[in-house]
């Protein structure tokens, strides 16, 4: 591009920039008023709004459940197609679903906590001021929705840990709710595992009985074979048949012993009552509120209000320019005058009819 062509472009940019600054400076008071009003409203809202405190608790689900003997059972049972299809109970995603379930949250909202307003203990239904709702089911549902909206769950796929965050208007209450939720999570987890252990015990018990019958049948078949064939050393076919029957008995014996051991372990697991969820960091009352963040809100509102003010003054400037352009056109002047005259005549005739009627 030549220097001659470049100079007009630079001059045009300077003119546009000056026009831009001129519009802002001409209406700077309006921008200042908009900015002051928005910042003032934001500051008042941040001061009036009840603060929220966030308590966090991090838990680590146990490793894949089962002992070495159970793994041994699975390896043996796979040969016979005896492995049950079952999902993992140790996935953080499973715990996330349980924490969000109505069953767990309904238990938590009905527990009693130290209310920030009262020294006595109250349920979350009372703390959330829902006790005036007549229908108990609706009251419980509203409390569930309230707590569900005040909690957040995040899962770390690398460490396989789960973090639960709970908001409340009181720091101690937030920590108590978070810890109670983990306690209920552990209880429900125990109930699920106990139910699973009962089902597992029943399954193994049935397999023990089936294996016992198969072992008895194999032993009887081997016994009858030995009774009918006293001398089998000289017959390759009889030796092969004898080997098959003997291996069947040994295989059934091995499976029966393994299943019997697992049956005893399943009975122990059924009555076992040990925590399965490991709490890495228990929820403690937070020292600082999580919201509202007054400084951040005021700062954001300040910058947004400036942009809004600039937008408004340019919109007003645009309307004024358009109005002046329309007034400068003869056609629009004539149309405006005719339209104004028509409404004046219509108004006079309307009032004249009204007077004659009276």
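^ Assign residues to that structure.
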């Amino acid at each position: 591009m030549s220097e001659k062509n470049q100079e007009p472009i630079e001059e045009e940019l300077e003119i546009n920039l000056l026009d831009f600054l001129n519009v802002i400076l001409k209406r700077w008071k309006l921008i200042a008023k908009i900015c002051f009003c928005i910042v003032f409203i934001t500051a008042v809202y941040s001061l009036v709004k009840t603060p929220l405190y966030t308590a966090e608790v991090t838990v680590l689900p146990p490793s894949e459940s089962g002992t070495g003997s159970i793994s041994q059972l699975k390896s043996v049972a796979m040969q016979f197609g005896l492995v049950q299809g079952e999902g993992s109970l140790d996935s953080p995603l499973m715990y996330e679903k349980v924490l969000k379930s109505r069953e767990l949250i309904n238990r938590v909202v009905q527990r009693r906590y130290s209310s920030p307003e009262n020294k006595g203990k109250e349920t979350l239904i009372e703390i959330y001021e829902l006790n005036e709702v007549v229908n108990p089911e609706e009251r419980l549902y509203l409390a569930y929705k309230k707590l569900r909206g005040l909690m957040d769950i995040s899962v770390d796929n690398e460490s396989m840990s789960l973090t639960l965050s709970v908001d409340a208007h009181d720091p101690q209450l937030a920590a108590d709710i978070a810890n109670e939720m983990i306690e209920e999570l552990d209880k429900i987890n125990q109930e699920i595992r106990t139910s699973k252990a009962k089902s597992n015990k029943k399954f193994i018990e049935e397999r023990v009985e089936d294996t016992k019958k198969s072992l008895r049948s194999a032993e009887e078949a081997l016994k009858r074979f030995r009774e009918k064939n006293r001398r089998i050393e000289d017959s390759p076919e009889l030796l092969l048949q004898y080997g098959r029957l003997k291996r069947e008995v040994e295989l059934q014996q091995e499976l029966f012993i393994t299943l019997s051991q697992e049956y005893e372990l399943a009975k122990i697991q059924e009555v076992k009552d040990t925590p399965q969820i490991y709490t890495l960091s228990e929820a403690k009352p937070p020292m600082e509120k999580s919201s509202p963040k007054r400084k951040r809100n005021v700062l954001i509102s300040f910058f947004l209000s400036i942009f809004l003010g600039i937008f408004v003054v340019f919109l007003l400037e645009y309307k004024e320019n358009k109005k002046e352009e329309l007034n400068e056109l003869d056609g629009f002047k004539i149309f405006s005058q005719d339209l104004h005259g028509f409404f004046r005549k219509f108004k006079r005739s309307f009032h004249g009819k009204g007077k004659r009627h009276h």
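The longest strand covers residues 53-60.
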